[in-house]
Amino acid sequence: MFSIFDISGSAMAAQGQRMNVTASNLANADSVAGPDGEAYRAKHLIFEARQQSGREIGGVRVRGLVEDSGPLRQEYRPEHPLADEAGYVSLPNVEPVNEMVDMIAASRSYQANVEVLNTSKQLMLKTLTLGEN
Fold first, then answer.
1. In this predicted model, what pLDDT tens digit does every residue of 71-111 receive, in sequence order?
2. Contact at 8 Å (CB) between 91 and 75?
3. Is residue 23 within 8 Å of residue 103, measured between CB atoms?
4. What sign does the CA torsion over 98, 100, 104, 107 have?
5. Cα 42 off chain centre by
């Protein structure tokens, strides 16, 4: 009966991490080089179903964090100190529009799970008051 709280809680935690990764991608969208001297690569989370004792599915968890292997953006800036011989600077492969869509989806999913928790709580409270009269 209380597993709904575990399932929704795990989804909220996963979506919270997703929002953090997306925020990191957006924050680095225009950075030219990171601490290692290389351009930032967008990161994405991989989710997987979490097993719960006696049940097939018990929520969701983050399986890992992967870097986007897509090509870096190339911008012609011959005066930039990090430009290559042809005058191009490598910029992150972050697509701000895609990241904003991902942020909105994660936020909506988080909100939906908050509603699931609130509704479950209200139903349990109503169940407790059934015997009163």
1. 999 999 999 988 899 999 999 999 999 999 999 999 999 99
2. yes
3. yes
4. positive
5. 12
